[in-house]
Design goal:
single chain, Rossmann fold, five-stranded parallel sheet, three-stranded antiparallel sheet, globular
């Protein structure tokens, strides 16, 4: 299977605008940011959560706690990933009990990643509530999961892929829709 870029959906400024809007929506929905924390799903959700926290600090003057969640061992497709799946570290250095946790990810697709993240998060404690923020919602849900905050809705086919790049991981920012082509 190979991927061929079709077109760019978001550039660096588009991502900044979407994350700034999400930051405002988080503040508005929660009537401020008291007792709110952000947890990004490894890999690209972490940098996105850090950026949202930075925008919230600019707006509200409050630095929110930010954690990173590795969901590898919680995935329902773990055995199909590889014989030795790469496990990263979970870094949630604050008590999540009774907090409003905003789970952050780059792309919402089937919902299975979010389901795994919910399981991993609940193993760390009992938040008051969990909200979901995603940069891209591409549809095709297989589980009853819906994002609370969405940067951009992008209807896709199953023959397409959405690739999110963040400078912290990929060296540049951008969102590209790709076509899956047989090699």
């Amino acid at each position: 299977m190979q991927l061929r870029d079709k077109h760019e959906l978001m550039d660096e400024m588009g991502i900044k605008r979407a994350l700034t809007r999400i930051a405002h929506e988080i503040i508005e929905r929660n009537k401020g940011v008291e007792n709110v924390a952000l947890v990004g799903i490894q890999r690209r959700g972490g940098p996105l959560a850090e950026r949202i926290a930075s925008y919230i600090k600019d707006i509200e003057g409050v630095q929110l706690p930010v954690g990173i969640l590795d969901i590898t061992l919680y995935r329902d497709d773990l055995t199909t990933l590889s014989a030795q799946p790469q496990v990263h570290r979970t870094l949630v250095n604050f008590d999540i009990n009774d907090k409003i946790i905003v789970l952050v990810d780059d792309v919402l697709y089937t919902g299975r990643t979010v389901r795994a993240a919910l399981d991993a998060l609940i193993d760390l404690g009992r938040p008051r509530c969990i909200q979901l923020a995603v940069l891209i919602d591409r549809g095709h849900r297989e589980l009853p999961i819906k994002a609370d905050f969405v940067g951009k809705n992008v209807p896709t086919s199953h023959q397409e892929n959405i690739s999110v790049m963040v400078r912290e991981v990929d060296g540049r920012d951008g969102v590209v829709i790709q076509e899956i082509v047989d090699s």
